[in-house]
Write a structure and sequence with these properties.
Elements lengths: L1 H13 L5 H14 L2 H13 L1 H9 L1 H7 L10 E5 L4 E6 L8 H4 L4 H4 L1 H9 L1 H7 L9 E6 L5 E5 L11 H5 L4 H5 L8
Parallel strand pairs: 1-4, 2-3
Helix pairs in contact: 3-4, 4-5, 8-9
Length: 187
């Protein structure tokens, strides 16, 4: 895939259709200013601040925007909190609706037909493919993103993190844990 992308980029640049420097700025923007780091900060704040968590669960769009994250593909957000009894996983069965302001560019697998169909039919199997084993009795709920609503999964806060700063907590949050195909890292 990387070779095909580079080949396409080279051809488009040679023909004058794209400016490689402008493309570098755009890519850097998504890698450093828009992306999973933003979502990790949202989750860390929710873990550390009960009032923010309640606001996030009540009105995710406003709560996320209060931290400076918003815009295209993040206009209508819903936060889903995982608990010991309930695990949430997100898929877009129609295409690849994805909350770019908090998660950045969607991973290739998120857009793949096998993920999109299996996540709904066999969520436990998909989680197993990602190396996730949930405790016995934990229900899995799959949420289907649409052009109107996008979801952010709030994974369970790992034990042993009491007293941690939001910055340190954010290091435990992964993109996959905010999609529900992973869990937060253990300290």
């Amino acid at each position: 895939m990387d070779l095909r992308v580079r080949a396409l980029e080279t051809v488009l640049a040679q023909k004058g259709y794209i400016d490689p420097a402008a493309l570098d700025v755009l890519i850097d923007n998504y890698q450093t200013r828009i992306g999973p780091r933003n979502g990790a900060q949202v989750v860390a704040k929710a873990w550390a601040d009960a009032d923010f968590r309640a606001w996030l669960l009540r009105d995710a769009t406003a709560a996320i925007a209060s931290l400076g994250y918003g815009g295209r593909q993040g206009e209508h957000m819903v936060a889903l909190e995982c608990t010991p009894a309930q695990h949430h996983m997100v898929v877009c069965t129609l295409c690849s609706c994805y909350p770019w302001p908090v998660l950045g560019l969607p991973p290739t697998w998120y857009k793949s037909a096998p993920y999109r169909s299996r996540a709904v039919q066999d969520p436990h199997g998909v989680l197993a493919d990602f190396g996730v084993t949930l405790p016995e009795g934990t229900a899995v709920r799959v949420w289907d993103s649409t052009a109107e609503v996008r979801y952010l999964v709030i994974p369970q806060r790992p034990a042993g993190t009491d007293g941690w700063s939001e910055e340190r907590l954010a290091t435990l949050v992964t993109r996959d844990s905010m999609i529900g195909t992973g869990l937060a890292r253990q300290p």
